[in-house]
Amino acid sequence: MSNKQETKLVIITGMSGAGKTVAVQSFEDLGYYCVDNLPPALLPKFLELMKDASNNIRQVALVIDLRGREFFDTLFEALDHLANADWLEEHILFLDAEDETLVSRYKETRRSHPLAQDGLPLNGILQERKILDELKGRAQHFINTTNLKPKELREKIVKKYSEEKQEVFSIHSLSFGFKYGLPIDADLVFDVRFLPNPHYVELLQPLTGLNSDVSSYVLKWTETQKFLDKVTDLLDFMLPQYKREGKSQLVIAIGCTGGQHRSVTIAEYLKNHFSGQYVTHATHRDIDKRKGH
Description:
By secondary structure, the protein is an alpha/beta fold. The protein contains nine helices and nine strands. Helices cover 40% and strands 19% of the residues. The strands form two sheets. It has a five-stranded parallel β-sheet with strand order 2-3-1-4-5, with helices on both faces. The chain is elongated.
């Protein structure tokens, strides 16, 4: 490898029904720029865009389905060019499963195989195997998903392709005001309207929970500390369970009346509290919606 930073390209291919959708979602969770079902004829042009030094894309995953011999030939021409690209680290991930398993999956989803002209999945599967046989031999990584659940396939991909030792799991603390409605993307919602309200303190009213005076006011009360002790204890138990289930992100929504003081303070507290264990973020949806701002 050269000393300069290389772009990583993973080509996800294999049998239809073997798990390519789960695979590309896993790469998205790993931070890869993903393109689903890219025609092989467009691969050279896409590589030119990747090589452009003005972009910051350094990890790319492409899903390529080979639906015919013409696509197959085009892909191999592009792969031959990749071998001379010193700026690119590329390899092929091939997903496969036993014929019986693929037939069963097609029946469960009531989908038709793209190559099954007569409507029988097995005939399409056998034809696809012939088309993909040579490509399978060129793959650097191979995963048989016959006995894998989607969560297990995701875990295999994360383990194989994650550059960091830490697990790919993030916590997103979201503050909001109940007067503006519940957030639709929250996994957990906590109501902190029972805490003392800085809105009624004249000097604190125009400020937000991002201000140290406001956060100190919210955090100084005994009920606040008891709440935080119980919530963090609950989350200490729940977060590993979500992580084990295969969830990549947990959105924890904290709501107060207007989304300006208490919810912002608690959301920031949770972000900082768990920052040593997980990747954490905080968003304050309604912090600027107060009257006259």
